Amino acid sequence: MEYLIGVVLAALVCAFATLTGFDRDRVFYPTVLIVIATYYILFAVMGNSAPALTVESLVAGLFLVVAVAGFKKNLWLVAAALAGHGVFDFFHHRFIENPGVPVWWPGFCMAFDILAGAFLAVLLLRRPVAAFPAG
Predict the structure, then answer these.
(1) How far apart are the C-alpha atoms of 94 and 8, rounded to whole Å?
(2) N or C, which terminus of the chain has less Cβ within 10 Å?
(3) What is the distance between the alpha carbons of residues 42 and 62, in angstroms, rounded to a whole number?
(4) Nearest-angstrom CA–CA distance, 108 and 36
(5) Could you give the CA distance from residue 123 to residue 17 in angstroms, rounded to a whole number?
(6) What are the counts of helices (DSSP H) followed by strands (DSSP E) for the chain?
């Protein structure tokens, strides 16, 4: 069920962004990536785990760096990082012990991230580069 909810929510968010024009600005999807990456920090705080907070902060920092690089240079980095975060969600529990992560989160976030990354990739293929001027 979490996969279905993740797919539906991602589709709604991406469609809303397109219909309102939010995604015409190249900062939209990098911001989404940064927000997505910081949820695991929130879960570490909720789980009262300093070790998880440290590791999750480092990982989120890497995604933040990619989001900024993608914003500045090439939005394909952001599309890849969104999808990559979805893959990360699938394997997260094997590498990082974070007691605050809800049981349903990895499946939900994986579905959301991969669809959002794919949606951005489709936008990049369909829209001319001039539609996303560099910042």
Answers:
(1) 27
(2) N
(3) 16
(4) 12
(5) 12
(6) 5, 0
Q: 9-48 as b/e, with b when 16 or more CB fall inside 10 Å?
A: ebeebbeebeeeebbeebebbbebbbebbbbbbebbeebe
Element (H, E) at 50: helix 50-72
**Residue 127: partners with Cβ closer than 8 Å, 6 or more residues away:** none
For residues 63 and 72, give the distance between their C-alpha atoms in angstroms, rounded to a whole number. Answer: 14
Question: Which residue reads 């994986």 in tokens?
Answer: 110
The tokens for 11 are 């589709």
Rg over alpha carbons for the chain, rounded to the nearest Å, is 15
| Chain segment 71-90, per-residue pLDDT in tens | 999 999 999 999 999 999 99
For the chain, which residues make up each domain, given as ranges?
2-127
**Which three-class secondary structure state does DSSP give residue 74?**
coil
For helices 75-95 and 50-72, give the axis angle rounded to 10 degrees: 160
Residue 105 contacts residue 57 (beta carbons within 8 Å):
no
